[in-house]
Amino acid sequence: MRIEKLAKMMRERNFDGALVSPGSNLYYLTGIRIHEAGERPTVLAVNSEGDFHLLVPSIYENTIKDFPVTFWRDGENPYAKLSAMMRELGIDDGKVLVENTMRADWLIEILRNSKVEPHPLGKVMKELRMRKDNGEIKLMEKAAKVADEVFEEILSWDLVGMTERELALKIELAIRERSDGISFEPIVASGENGANPHHEPGERKLRRGDMVILDYGAKWKGYCSDITRTIALGKPGEKLIEIYEVVREAQERAFQVVREGVKAKEIDGTARRTIEEAGYGRYFTHRTGHGLGLDVHEEPYIGPDGETILENGMTFTIEPGIYVPNLGGVRIEDDVLVEGKGRRLTKSSRELISL
Ligand code: CO
Ligand code: CO
User: Which ligand is nearest to the CA of 290?
Assistant: First the structure.
């Protein structure tokens, strides 16, 4: 039924078909999750009438049932089969939407074997996926709850002396114990490493006086959570404590702006102004947030250029931060749902916690 929604949008916008490779769009449209197709061509073809057919390597023969499918075996030419499929569906020429992340080697073969005029599928899919239905919201609530539970557990650990890598691994295990897995590799950034928003956890040992940024998320039936909390070990310097309060204030004010009908950039603007007024504007180096769903980064993006008008059912993060070289950083991130006003899905305390 989601495929029919895509077909309807294609008819309205004069696209003839779509080619979807494995990933969250394929899962959203069909419920089929291809765990690891790798280099083996795997493509769902859809025409604007809503007819569809899937080309899949035969390693999935026993997992894909009750779906119009053509399997191909190693040694066969999958592109000949794909061409026949596309001819059958009447989409071997015309304007065809192609998965943004389709491998170039597949696309090159497709373009050689057809007269397709490719267009990015993402632009159309984002409109289908941005507004979550009630079933999707339930799954996101669960993913967010796992993130909160893991934070509680982290607070019970003896962190001083642990390396960033050790802590990241423990966080990953705690997530996996409670969910379908991590939504991205956990970030642990301690002390001066906190000045790098996407620091890769390393061998630095956590010590007293550190601020530690913890950024991680869980997946539940495909849906992602993404939380950041910054905690103190012992008593960090005055400057970092001041920065913490600025970020907390920016995050809260931005959250208060969330409601149906507001533009994404107004949320970013509110967080940014708060940080600028405190004199740290040049240290807030990224957008305020990103949409969240089957992908951990998706539409709507909450940045200075965010023209998307918020609607009920949209889910995204609010995650301002301040990063001062040679000193450290603070980021606070929650997952938020638009429901008239904003509702936080992640609920862990945002007060500065000192262990
Ligand atoms: Co995050
Ligand atoms: Co995020």
Answer: 2
How many degrees, rounded to 5, is the angle at CA 112 between CA 107 and CA 113? 100
What is the CA(228)–ligand 2 centre distance, in A?
Answer: 8
pLDDT of 340 over the 90 cut: yes
Tell me the C-alpha distance between 229 and 347, whole Å.
11
DSSP H helix total and E strand total for the chain:
9, 19
pLDDT per position as a tens digit, 230-278: 999 999 999 999 999 999 999 999 999 999 999 999 999 999 999 999 9
Does 2-129 carry CATH code 3.40.350.10?
yes
Q: For residue 107, how far is its CA from the centre of ligand 2 (angstroms)?
A: 30
Please list all protein residues whose beta carbon sits less than 5 angstroms from ligand 2, which is an ion.
226, 317
Distance from residue 207's CA to the centre of ligand 2 (Å)? 26
Ligand 1 center from residue 346 Cα (angstroms): 12
Q: How far is the CA of 185 from the centre of ligand 1 (A)?
A: 10
Q: How many angstroms is it from 171 CA to the middle of ligand 2? A: 16
CATH code for the part of the protein at 134-344: 3.90.230.10
279 Cα: distance to centroid of ligand 1 (angstroms): 24
- State residue 36's pLDDT score: 79
- Average pLDDT for the chain: 97
Domain ranges of the chain: 2-129, 134-344
Residue-by-residue DSSP string for 266-327:
HHHHHHHHHHHHTT-GGG--S-SEEE-SSSSSEEEEESTT--PBP-TTBEEEE--EEEETTT
Q: Using CA atoms, how far apart are residues 44 and 209, in angstroms rounded to an integer?
A: 53
